[in-house]
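We were asked to recover a plausible sequence for a given structure. The inputs and outputs are reproduced exactly as logged, with field labels preserved.

PROBLEM: sequence recovery
POSITIONS: 311
GIVEN STRUCTURE:
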């Protein structure tokens, strides 16, 4: 084969097609991913920063084997919640799964609501290469979260503005990076190696709030609090549970008797709704996403439009 033929063959290599199903919590992303995967020969990669942890099942709404309906799912139950799992870890493992799925001739479907993870993977964003500083982490962990937030504000005002000020792990990591590099580098998007079909699910705020309320009650009836008790008995500290955020943070407080059942349900519902609004804001910045309202649009129509985009 001539050199010219080799060049032509290289030029004919098309970028890997990937479908990304994104949007705020409680909009039916997992259900859509399964139906779509069955139609097009897809396999699902979960992009949820807490579903990677083993045992965090009911609280995170982790999909069950039965609900998967035979569709392979990845990046679920990757590691014990006693250990840390970073966005860099997610990107590395998820990229391996994309290659494996593509190698079988199937379509990778990225499905989830953790925008930071999704952008790092699909928008090819740079991840700061700063190794963990155990000594610094131990020192920082002695401080109250409000003190850590103040420290980050002084070190890196830009990162302070867009960080979850309740998430100690993220705050400590941001301080760690800022201490090493002077500031947390602004995320730079490099041209992606993939052809991405972006599908967004969203609905009106009042509808979303109702869905969140109903889903929380369903999870509580399914034994969410018993799951929290079990995790603690298995060695997951109350402190670590708090760090895991949202459902687990409030379960930790309630199970320790630090808040009433009424306050637990009321505060948790509010915080999940606030989180959903932050997710909306995050994904709305991506102008490539085609949005659908699952309460108004038939699933069949969304699937047909997605299939047409694959051509």
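RECOVERED SEQUENCE:
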């Amino acid at each position: 084969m001539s050199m010219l033929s080799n060049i032509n063959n290289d030029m004919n290599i098309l970028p890997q097609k990937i479908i990304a199903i994104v949007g705020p919590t409680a909009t039916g992303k997992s259900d859509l991913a399964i139906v779509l995967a069955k139609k097009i020969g897809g396999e699902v990669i979960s992009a949820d920063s807490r579903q990677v942890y083993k045992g965090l099942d009911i609280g995170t709404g982790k999909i069950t084997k039965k609900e998967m309906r035979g569709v392979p799912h990845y990046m679920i139950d990757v590691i014990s919640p006693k250990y840390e799992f970073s966005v860099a870890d997610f990107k590395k493992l998820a990229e391996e799964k994309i290659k494996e799925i593509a190698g079988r001739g199937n379509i990778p479907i990225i499905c989830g609501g953790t925008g930071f993870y999704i952008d790092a993977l699909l928008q090819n964003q740079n991840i700061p290469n700063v190794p963990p500083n155990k000594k610094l982490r131990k020192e920082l962990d002695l401080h109250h979260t409000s003190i850590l937030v103040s420290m980050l504000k002084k070190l890196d005002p830009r990162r302070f503005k867009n960080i979850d000020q309740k998430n100690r792990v993220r705050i400590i990591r941001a301080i760690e990076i800022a201490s090493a590099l002077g500031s947390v580098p602004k995320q730079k998007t490099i041209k992606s190696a993939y052809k991405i079909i972006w599908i967004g699910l969203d609905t009106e705020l009042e509808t979303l709030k109702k869905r969140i309320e109903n889903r929380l009650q369903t999870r509580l009836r399914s034994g969410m609090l018993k799951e929290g008790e079990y995790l603690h008995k298995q060695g997951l500290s109350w402190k670590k549970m708090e760090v895991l955020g949202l459902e687990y943070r409030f379960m930790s407080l309630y199970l320790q008797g630090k808040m009433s059942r009424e306050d637990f349900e009321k505060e948790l519902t509010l915080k999940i709704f606030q989180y959903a609004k932050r997710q909306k804001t995050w994904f709305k910045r991506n102008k490539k996403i085609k949005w659908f309202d699952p309460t108004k649009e038939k699933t069949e129509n969304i699937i047909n439009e997605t299939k047409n985009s694959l051509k």
